[in-house]
Amino acid sequence: MNDFSWLVPLPVVLPLVGAGINLAAAGRTRVQRIVSMTTLTVILLITMVLLFAADQRGPQVVQVGGWAPTEGVVLIVDRLSALMVIVSVVVTMAVLRYSIGQGRSSFDNESDGHAPLPVFHPTMLVLSAGVSTTFISGDLFHMYVGFEMLLAASFVLLTLGGTEARVRAGVTYVFVSLLSSMLFLIAIAMIYSATGTVNLAVLADRLDQIPTDTAVVLHVLLILGFCVKAAVFPMSGWLPDSYPTAPAPVTAVFAGLLTKVGIYALIRTQTLLFPDGTLNNVLMWAALLTMLVGILGAVTQDDIKRMLSFTLVSHIGYLLFGIALGSPAGMSAAIFYVLHHITIQTTLFLVTGLVERVGGTTASSHLGGLAKISPLLGILFFVPAMNLAGIPPFSGFLGKVGLMQAGVAEGGWLPMVLVAGSVVTSLLTLYAVARVWGRAFWGAAPRADEGMTYTPASTGNGRAMGAGVVLPTVSLVAFGLALTFVAGPLFEITDRASLDLLLREPYLIAVLGEGRPR
Amino acid sequence: MSPNITLILVAATLLGTGVYLLLARSIVRALVGFLLMGNGINILFMVASGPAGDVPILDQGDPDQMADPIPQALVLTAIVITLAMTAFVLSLAHRAWQLGRDDLLEDDEESARIHRRAEENDMSGESTDDADVIAAEFAEEDTGEEER
Hints:
The structure holds two protein chains of two kinds. By secondary structure, chain A is mainly α. Chain A has a domain at 279-485. Chain A has 20 helices and two strands. Chain A has a two-stranded antiparallel sheet with strand order 1-2. In chain A, helix 5 packs antiparallel against helix 10 (248-273), helix 6 runs antiparallel to helix 8 (212-230) and helix 11 (280-300) runs parallel beside helix 17. In chain B, helix 1 packs antiparallel against helix 2 (27-48) and helix 2 (27-48) runs antiparallel to helix 3 (69-100). Chain B is built from five helices and no strands. Chain B is mainly alpha-helical. Chain B folds into two domains: 5-100, Helix Hairpins (Orthogonal Bundle); 109-147. The termini of chain B are far apart. The radius of gyration of chain B is 25 Å and the shape is elongated. Chain B has helices spanning 5-22, 27-48, 69-100, 109-119, 128-147. The chains are: A mainly alpha, B mainly alpha. The interface between A and B is large, with 47 and 45 residues. Chain A: The chain crosses the membrane at residues 6-27, 34-53, 73-96, 117-136, 142-161, 173-194, 214-234, 246-267, 282-300, 307-328, 334-355, 376-394, 414-434, 469-491. Chain A: Keywords: Cell membrane, Membrane, Transmembrane, Transmembrane helix.
């Protein structure tokens, strides 16, 4: 039955091998580029096969080293993991192509100058390996290792070049991330002492058997750690503080992937380990506050990158809403929205990188009249921005409608308040992006006496809107649009994925076998 | 299994002092806090592994008398990861000290500016002057850097 299970470890192994080759080839930019792009393309193909296999034949499982689930690490790809890996690889590829097109790794005039940083490509591949590890591991501790892999890589990427602003932002980010990892580790230690295992499938069985109050303590600990990672209010303050200082491609990949890893972990916890939904009401309140506080923050921002960081926080609330509903429809819409949101946030940050190349800044008060200079840039910003705000017929609209339908179907006053809250958030998002759109693209051009004339030369290699950076952005915008066109089949897959998640049986049987040991 | 109370006290002390130090603005202090917390959690794993026992090698004695090896493997991994993170944070602290002769964590300029505007009740949204001042400050710092 498991014909394709030998493919399961490859999304982790290949990028690590690629990263090794890239480190050995430090200084040979061309070799690095070829290796990274080939690796990612191969992984993309592999995960597509895995998605097909997981969809048609059930979850694909590998028991590493042949150890039984209680002793060893289990790797498992079900529909959810496969979808997440595919989207993460797609955005990583687009971002890498963008930074290749940029000619150097970081958009930085201060210290690394025009030299491509030799560590950029290896680190991106390690990041990709860490993200994949988290998505395919069927073991809490292995998930922690995946988190640490991607964190270490993200620390390096965030502080690339070591300028003052980046070190300042880096310190905040590093300590918050380390703290959340510690929370997660404490939770793992507690869970091990309560149940004697860290394997997710075995845990699912054993957690049912321990006293409810103990289970609630473990549940809260796990969720706290993940919520910090996912930037759920009130643990979201670190995100807008640290993301905007990084180079555009780095911010783009962070915005797309890092918080979603926390969301993925939350989905697993809520469905597999604690399916009884004791904390669903708490999560709903957190979702509501995340949405509203996040978007109110976005409205006050002047800098486009910071505005986008706040919308990122805000839209995490939608995902949390879907998870907290705990119904098949809600979970399905949440998974769809995760896929949409990874793509759209990455796209918007890449487009903002283009705005920075053309305009020399991302402060919207210093921008203006960009639509005249580059109509293409206008379209590239407009389409994903409207997608983010959830204007029909884009995928953002479909995801939001899915969530609202699920909320209405759930009934009760709290889901209804959340539905109202998500409408308000959606409108405020529209206001925030429309304001930036109006100022940067239609407002008066910047005053010449400030010396803020548009000088693309300050942005590095030659033309600001060169094909090397525009094509990856266009393709990602197109991918975002494609989500609308395949929304029907995609929703069918996410429906099946969410049913599997909530039933738990397919996952448990895949890992433990038919007659599962208790 | 009754947990080992000494280990729990040690872990609690380490975690408590760790959290206290982590709240400091100095990067090195926070790093020490992180290290203490890390060790506290490692000891928590030792609590989780239950009472000490024989060497856990297969076919060498009674399995009932063996110590549980899995938490020890987990702790080993956690120690390695903590070491790597410590190295990174140390280099970060060194870089911060290089740049500013200080390892204190500073406030975010942009959010400080928004706070200031909120206090002044400035609703105009036109913040160019303020941003220019900050940009000028940055430019000065940059030139200072090159001279050094």
